[in-house]
Model the fold of this input.
Amino acid sequence: MHSWEEALRGRLRHASRGRVARGTVIVLGSMLLLPTALWLIVLVAVMASRPGDGGGPTPPSIHRPALRAWITVASVFVGAVVLSALRKPLTGHGVQLLLWFCLLPAIGVAFWAGGRRAHTTAAVWFGTTIGACTAGSVAVVQIVLLDQPRAEGLVANSITFGNLALLMGALSIALHRLVRLPGRAAFWASSIAGVSGLMAGMLSGSRGGWLAVPLMVGLLLWQAHDELTPTRLARAALVMVATVSICNALSDGMLTSRASASVTNVSGYAHSKEDPPTDETPVTAAGSSEGARLEAWRSSGTAFRERPISGIGWGNLGTRFDRDAELGHRHERIATFEHAHNQLIGAAASGGAIGVASLLALFVVPLRRFARAARSRDQRLQALGVSGIIVIGSFAVFGLTEAILENLVPVTFLAVVTAALCAELDAAGRVTHHEQPAVSTAHGSRRRRRTSFAVPTRSPRSAGVDRVIAVLPPSFRGLR
Done:
């Protein structure tokens, strides 16, 4: 037992070497449970730390294609927001959004300057595991003991709490193969984190987050297809069904009632646009959670058609909703909204076609990098690639019913995790290149297997000399 504890402490010290890695663990593990000001102080301290702390300065010549691409598209996105402000100055909320968006490239730069040995894979795993396990416990306490209608942690937003708890649990499972702990400790810790994240997501009542569960589960099953047997698949399905059933029972049927209400309200809203408003059904449907979102989408669509290139400016949708509700064009409930509850539609209304293009680049560019890595035969590259697809894909699904990037907590999560995965992807690609064996081609010649993340460190001339020396007798090989 003593040796197990010593090994665990050693892994924790290894995972938290350097300020960037320590900040990653603390921010991911506490962002759903501590006041924003506390973990934001940690984040600022990490970003302000001197380059190379904990791993030695990183030479500028080191090739980091994935991290560089992420910093570039994040900077382009921020530039698009600034460009929209040239036509119409940003309001107070718009300035706030700009500051939050600036975290996307800034945190990427912090990882770039964090040194060669940031140990961010273990840091992300420990942070997400701690965050998911704690979120599940807090969700049960809030629902069962505090009798709250929906779990929300301490972020005062049940949607954000549920979405990120689900995502943390999935990331913990996706990365556990890369974390070496005694026995099967990493597997069991990730399993508990996955169940805890699922519980927190269900008890939060975040229906938009529920839509991302099939994507997460499908990617995790694909990642483990070599190890998957019918028995293991049946056990996983049983655990998920049992978890959802327990959550539904603990919340007095909240899950089934919210799912049923979604279908009823969307159907009622659709019928209200076809039938004349002779009763209260249209008003009730448009004033529901789903109906108000549809009203906000229609109002945002009108704003986009008025200014299709640059939009009406970030942070100005709330004013637009107030005006439409006052004039009777839309239901009065949208006057309480500051965003469109859809990231793509909101970007179209706020930033026009430029905003849409920059938002798509923010998601598509890193997604292509992660998809390429996920197809690799190298276990490390594959795990990092699948984790990245889970993050980007889940944020895209979350964005269907919520302006996921117009909240500080999700923006910080996306910035930290994506930068960490990109940095590790580049490092894993360099290691894979060095370890890649030569393979025979159809013509009998020998070549080195290509990888998209490989960075040549030796010249072709040097490699040719090595081949010549390899065929010499042992007594001549010392000539080099």
